[in-house]
Amino acid sequence: MIGLVSVLLGGVGIFLTGMFLLTEGLKAAAGDSLRAGLQRFARTPARGLASGTLLTALVQSSSATTLTTIGFVSAGLLTFPQALGVIFGANLGTTSTGWIVSVLGLRVSVGAMALPLVGVGALLRLLAKGRWSHGGTAMVGFGLIFVGIDTLQAGMEGIAHQIDPGAFGGETLLGKGVLVVVGLLMTVVMQSSSAAVATTLTALHTGTIGLEQAALLVVGQNMGTTVKAALAAIGGSVPVKRTAAAHILFNLFTGALALALLPGLLSLSVAIVGEGDPAVAVALFHSLFNLAGVIALFPFLGAFAGWIERRMPEKELPLTGHLDPSLIELPTVAVEAARRAGAGIARELFTQGVRTARGLPPLPRKEARVETAGEAVVRLRSFLTRIHSPAGEEQQFARHLSVLHAADHLERFRRALKEPAPLDLELARPVADALERWTKEMQAEKGGIPGDEDLKHCAQEVGEVRKARRASLLEAGVTREMDAGDLRDRVDGLLRLDRMAYHAWRAARHLRKAAPGQEGTESSLEEEPASASLADDVHEAPE
C-alpha cells in the first residue's frame, strides 16, 4: 500500500511540474503579447469573458489568469467591471483541463509519445534562445502532464483493488459536504485545481471512486481556486480586494448552483457522453455548472460590480496608490503601473512648476501634492528596484530602465522647485507655457504620454540663455557693476530654471519611451544629449 501511495504522490508531482512548466513556458514565449492582448480584448465584459476563457485554456491555469487580472485592476489597466468578465471566463476556461485529461490522458495512450516530447523540449530549452527556448519549456511541461497521468493511473489501479468506493460516502447531506470540503482541500494542498481534477478523474476512471463522488470532489476543487485570490488580497489595495471578493463570491455561487443542480446536470452529462465514459461525463459536468454560473450572473454583472463597490468604497488614491506589492510577481504589469504612477507624479509636479515659473504661490496643501511628491518618488524608486526585468528581455528591460530614469529626473525637478533662488519671470515664461501645455495634453491623452519636443526645445533655449547670461553676469561681478548678493541670486536663479527645464524634459521623454508601443522607437539606454547647456555639470551640481 505504501508503494502505491508513493506512485500516486509521484504522479501528482510529475503532473504539477508539467502544469507549472507549461504555464510558465507559454507565458514567457508569448512575452508582453499576453498582457497587451488581455488588456486590449477585455475592454467590455463580454470580450473579457471570451479573453479569460481562451487565455486560461491556453496557459492551463485559472490562478495565473485571475492573479494577472487582479494585477491589472491594481495597476489601473482594467476597470473593476471589465475584470469581472475575465474572472468569469477564467472559471470557464479552467474546465479545459478536465477535457484534456479525460479525452486524451485517459482514453488515448500518449505516455510513449510524451517522453520524446519531453526530450525534444529539453533540447530546445538548453540549445535554443528566446521564444524557442521558452517554447521548449512549454513542450516539456505538456509531455510531463501525460507522464503524470500515466503514473497516476498506475497508482490508482492498484489502490482501486484495495478500497471500496462506498467508503467515501456521498449519499447523505453530510457525506456530500465532506466530499466538497475534501475537494477544496485537495486544491489548497496541491496549489492547483487542475492537478486536483486530474487526480479525481483518474480515480474515477480506475474505479477507485464513483461518479457522484467524483462530481462532488470537482465542485469542491472548483471552489478551492479562490484561495490564491484571497491570499493576494491580504494587505492589498481596494481594487485588489474587490476583484478577489468577486472571484470568491462567483465561485461560491457557482458551487452552490452545482450542488443544487447536481442530479440533473450529472444525468444530462451521462446522457450526452454515454455511461461508458464516466471521466468525460464529469469533465462535461464541470463545464456545465461553470457555464450555468456565468449565464446566471452575467446579465447582472453591472449590478454585481456596483454591489461590491458599495461595500468596498475606494478613497482618493495617493500618487503611488496603484503600486501594489502583489504586482511584483508580474513584471510587465508592475512596470506599467510604475509608469502610470510616474506620469501622475509628473502631472502634479509640472502643475506646481507652472505656478513657480510664473511667480505664483504654491497651491494649498489640500489642492496640491507637491509636498508629498518626494515621498511618492521614493516609493516609486523602491517599487521599481524590487521588479526583476532580465537583461535578455530587451523591451521589458528598456521600459523598466526608462521609468527608473524618469523617477530620477522627477526627483531632481522637485528639488529645483524647492530651491530658494529667485527666478527671472520673463525668462521663465516659456518654461511655464511648455509645462502647462504638457499637462493639458496629458489629460487629453487619458493615460497616454504627450510628446516631449516642446519641452526639449524649451530646455535647450533656456540652456543657451543660461550659458550666455551667466558669463555676462560674472563679468559684471568682476567690474563691480553688481554686488555679490545680487550676483549670487541671479546666477542661482538661472541655474535653478535650467535644472527645472532640463529635468522636466528628460522625465517626460523617458515616460514616453516607457509607454506601450514606444519600445522600439529608440533605445532607452541612449546617453544624455550633449548640447551646450547639458554638457556642463550644472544639472548634477550639489544644491
What does this structure look like?
The protein is an all-alpha fold and 543 residues long. It folds into 2 domains: 2-311, no CATH class; 326-540. It has helices at residues 2-30, 32-41, 45-59, 62-75, 80-93, 96-105, 111-127, 130-160, 173-190, 193-205, 211-224, 226-233, 238-260, 262-273, 278-297, 301-311, 331-357, 373-386, 394-417, 425-445, 453-478, 484-514. Helix 3 packs parallel to helix 5 and helix 11 runs antiparallel to helix 13. The radius of gyration is 30 Å and the shape is elongated. The model is unreliable at 160-166 and 520-543 (pLDDT under 50).
Labels describing this entry:
about 550 residues; disordered C terminus; mainly alpha; 2 domains; elongated
Query: Main β-sheet: number of strands, strand sense, barrel status?
Result: none
- Gross morphology is elongated
N-to-C series of helices and strands: HHHHHHHHHHHHHHHHHHHHHH
Strand proportion: under 5%
The mean pLDDT is: 79
Query: How many strands?
Result: 0
The termini sit apart by 76 Å
Structural class: mainly alpha
Low-confidence stretches: 160-166, 520-543
Q: Roughly what percent helix? A: over 70%
* Count of folded domains: 2
Radius of gyration in whole Å, from Cα? 30 Å
Number of helices: 22
Q: What is this structure, in a nutshell?
A:
The protein is mostly helical and 543 residues long. 74% of the residues lie in helices and 0% in strands.
